[in-house]
Amino acid sequence: MARHALVVGGTGLVGTCVVDALLADATWSRVTALARRPLEHPGRQFESRVVDFAHLEQLSLPAIDDVFCCLGTTIRVAGSRAAFRRVDHDYPLAVAKAALAAGAQQFLFISAMGADPRAAVFYSRVKGELEHDAATLPFRAVIALRPSLLAGARIESRPGERLALAALQPLRRLVPRNYRPIAARAVARAMVDCAKRDLRGFVVVESGALLALAGDTDTAS
What is the CB-side half-sphere exposure of residue 114 using CA atoms within 13 A? Predict the structure, then answer.
């Protein structure tokens, strides 16, 4: 039976690729995207909903089967640690709870390498806290994807990532698979693939496994 997918963060690097992948897959007959601004996409099966993420307690959703959460920022872009935590922890968790109430069976989200609620690094700790808190929700499956450095054309400027990619790409095949740069489109393909598997409970998918699922083992372009 065709399913209804909810995409959160559909304007971002991975989120735009996830929307494209879902609309190209007959598994889903309907795709709804929540974003701060309208999204344009051909096809009657796509709906764009503008939401105020600061007031997600008011969010009401139609019947949902699968949630794909691609929300994420940096402390520099967010402006403070508190603002970063809202975007990378509070908002995804609020959407997950709203989708659960709408009947969603699984919650897939972008986490990060090294995510750990006990981590000394604030970024990794927040990602780990999201994993921990999402895993307690009664979905059939909660799937955390932990990609390495993402390759792709971002709207926002992240000079540190550009420098790291420039340094790592020539050495890509010498780097262990979990640490190789990975294309956003490969992460999206792997995310959609995971959603079609009969996974149960809390599942972590590391970056090397994402590359294998996407069939993208040699390039991150």
Answer: 10
**Average pLDDT score over the chain:** 87
Q: How far is CA 218 from the centre of its chain?
A: 22
Spatial neighbors of 72 by CB under 8 A, at least 6 apart, are 9, 12, 87, 88, 110
Q: Which comes out higher in pLDDT, residue 181 or 145?
A: 145
In the chain, the N- to C-terminal Cα span, in Å, equals 34
Q: Is residue 127 part of a domain?
A: yes
How many beta carbons lie within 10 A of that of residue 160, not counting itself? Answer: 11
How far apart CA 174 and CA 109 sit, in angstroms, is 28
Residue 105 included in any domain: yes
- Count of domains observed in the chain: 1
**Which tokens belong to 81?**
């640690």
In a domain, 219, yes or no: no
| CATH number of the domain residue 194 falls in | 3.40.50.720
Interatomic CA distance for residues 210 and 105, integer angstroms = 21
Predicted model pTM: 0.87
User: What is the C-alpha separation between 42 and 44, in angstroms, rounded?
Assistant: 7
> Domain containing 106: what range?
3-214
